[in-house]
């Protein structure tokens, strides 16, 4: 549980620093370039996941994995709608779709989703209690 949670949290943290969106003139953007508030919320989730790892709480780790996926979905939707809204001053729908299509998603999303998947699949290890066998007569020598 501990190793899987740490690897998942590190992958999520590294994925937030990887290129997430390619804007034609401005270059590659990571989470902080997209929106600073979303990036802070994302890294707070990663920190909660690491806290859950060190406290041994599988529920914290799973929560941060699911919350990270929800935050990624919100961010992807925000990027899509912002790209289409930014070119709203153009009057031709084909030109708006062409201009918004120039904003490309990059590979950093896959790294974040892989880390979130690792955090979601964390299980608490089963504890096996061994009891000594007693003789058939019930008396212990």
Explain how this protein is built.
With 141 residues, the chain is mainly α. 23% of the residues are buried. The longest helix is centred in the middle third of the chain and has 29 residues, at 58-86. It contains 6 helices and 3 strands; from the N terminus they run H-E-E-H-H-H-H-E-H. The model has no long low-confidence stretch (mean pLDDT 86). The chain has a 3-stranded antiparallel sheet with strand order 2-1-3. It has one domain (2-120). Helices cover 65% and strands 6% of the residues. The radius of gyration is 23 Å and the shape is rod-shaped. Helix 1 (2-17) runs antiparallel to helix 3 and helix 4 crosses helix 5. The protein has helices at 2-17, 31-34, 36-55, 58-86, 93-101, 108-120; strands spanning 21-23, 27-29, 104-105.
Short description:
With 141 residues, this protein is mainly alpha-helical. It has six helices and three strands. It has one domain.
From the N-terminal CA to the C-terminal CA, the straight-line distance is 40 Å
- The averaged pLDDT comes out at 86
Quick one: biggest sheet? Answer: 3 strands, antiparallel
Sequence stretches where pLDDT stays below 50 over 5 or more residues? none
Number of helices: 6
The percentage helix is 55-70%
């Amino acid at each position: 549980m501990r190793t899987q949670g740490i690897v998942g949290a590190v992958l999520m943290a590294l994925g937030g620093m990887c290129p997430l969106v390619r804007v034609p003139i401005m270059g590659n953007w990571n989470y902080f370039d997209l929106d600073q508030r979303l990036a802070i919320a994302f890294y707070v989730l990663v920190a909660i996941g690491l806290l859950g790892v060190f406290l041994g709480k599988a529920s914290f780790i799973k929560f941060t994995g699911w919350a990270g996926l929800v935050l990624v979905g919100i961010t992807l939707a925000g990027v899509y709608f912002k790209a289409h809204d930014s070119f709203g001053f153009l009057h031709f729908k084909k030109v708006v779709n062409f201009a918004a299509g120039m904003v490309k998603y990059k590979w950093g999303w896959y790294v974040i989703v892989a880390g979130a998947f690792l955090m979601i699949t964390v299980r608490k290890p089963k504890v096996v209690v061994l009891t000594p066998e007693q003789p058939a007569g019930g008396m212990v020598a």
